[in-house]
Design a protein that fits this description.
This protein has a six-stranded antiparallel β-sheet with strand order 1-2-8-11-10-9. The protein has a five-stranded antiparallel β-sheet with strand order 4-5-6-3-7, with helices on one face. It has four helices and eleven strands, in the order E-E-E-H-E-E-E-H-E-E-H-E-E-E-H. The chain has helices at 46-57, 96-106, 131-136, 187-198; strands at 23-24, 30-34, 37-43, 69-71, 77-83, 86-93, 113-116, 121-127, 153-158, 161-167, 177-183. By secondary structure, the protein is α+β, with helices and mostly antiparallel strands.
């Protein structure tokens, strides 16, 4: 009797916006999801945790300035200030496991809380010369270039979706780029809300698959 080998089916990992495709306008405005970026949230005293965090992340220290981000020397890890004792780590795709192991070791014996929230949030990136103007239509945040600068991180409502907005460092002379970090359950709504604002710049408007009304 010959037993056939049974192989397990491959499970495809889908992101919250896997049903959406990246969009580009005629003037260079681009909208796309950055799926599966690693995300950890840390709660602890900044003065106590800064040294071990900096060592573990190779330079992505806990920002002391409110509403800002710090990125490691190799660019693989960023730390975002969310509150006086709360930070979010953003890693490259699937980098959260290694980072959490390192932080758990580095913070041993210190009072802290470290939670993997990779699948709770996704990221929507919007870039181009009209990116800032597109976002102005969605939030009460002051989006003037003097008020919202490279490296700034601020939480706010965008329509009816809570999200963190982070201005990425794209380098001198390059178009601006922003990252919206939003709960997975609200990602499709926010994506469609952005397309409604960006239709002025040639990106086709899309509607939520679950039928929510778009409100700006």
């Amino acid at each position: 009797m010959v037993l056939s080998k049974v192989t397990s089916p491959q499970i495809e990992r889908l992101s919250p916006l896997s049903h959406r495709t990246a969009k580009s306008g005629p003037d260079g405005l681009t909208l796309q999801e950055s799926p599966h970026l690693g995300k950890l949230i840390l709660r602890m005293d900044q003065k106590v945790g800064n040294k071990p965090v900096t060592a573990t992340t190779k330079g992505a220290s806990l920002p002391s300035n409110p509403c800002t981000a710090v990125t490691s020397k190799n660019g693989h890890i960023s730390t975002l200030w969310l509150g006086p004792d709360e930070w979010m780590f953003i890693t490259e795709k699937d980098g959260e496991r290694e980072l959490k192991i390192g932080l758990d070791m580095g913070l041993t014996g210190l009072v802290h809380q470290l939670v993997n929230v990779t699948d709770y949030y996704t990221s929507i990136d919007i870039s181009g010369h009209q990116a800032r103007e597109t976002l102005m239509n969605l939030t009460t945040l002051d989006m003037h270039a003097r008020a919202f600068k490279v490296g700034d991180v601020k939480g706010s409502l965008f329509g009816h979706a809570n999200a963190y907005l982070w201005q990425l460092n794209t380098g001198t002379g390059q178009p601006e780029a922003f990252r919206l970090i939003v709960r997975a359950s609200m990602a499709d709504y926010l994506w469609c809300l952005i397309t409604r604002s960006a239709r002025l710049f040639g990106i086709p408007e899309e509607m939520p698959i679950s039928g929510e009304k778009l409100v700006i």
